[in-house]
Amino acid sequence: MILNKLEMYNFRQYIGHQSIEFSSDSEKNVTVLIGVNTSGKTTIVRAFEWCFYGKNAFDDTVLLNSEVRNNMNRGDVQETWVSITFVHDEKVYTIKRSFKYVCSERYSEGDKLIVNLNKKPEENLSLEYLQSDGQTKTPIDRANITESMDRVLPKDLSDYFFFGGERISSIADRTDLSKAVRGLMRLDVLENASNHLKTVVKGFEGDIDTTGDSNAQRAKDGLETYTKRKAEYEQELANYDKQVQYWLGKEKEYDAQLAKSNIEQVKKAKQDRDRAQKALEAEVQRLSQVKAEMVRAFNTRPYAFFGLPAIKASLEMLEVAKEKAGEVKESVPAMEQDAVDYLINRGYCICGTRLDPGTIPYMKVMEERRVLPPEHVGDAVRQYKDKAEGYLAGTEDFKDKIEDKYKEYRATKRRIVQIQNEIEEQSKFIIDDTDAKEIENKRRDAHTKYIEAKSDYDGCSRKLGECESNIKNCESAIAKYAKNSAKNQRTALLITYSQKVYEWLLETYRGKEEIVRDELQRRVNDNFAKMYHGERSIVIDDKYRVRYSDIITEESDGLKAVKSFAFIASLVSMAKDKILDEDDMKLGQFYPLVMDAPFSNVDEIHIDNICRILPNTANQVVMAVMQKDWEYASVNLDKYVGKSYRIEKDRDANGKEIETATHIM
Amino acid sequence: MDQNLDEKKLDKIKLRILEMETDNIVKKESNPAMEDKIRKMIISEVEKR
Question: What is the pTM of this model?
Answer without folding.
Answer: 0.59
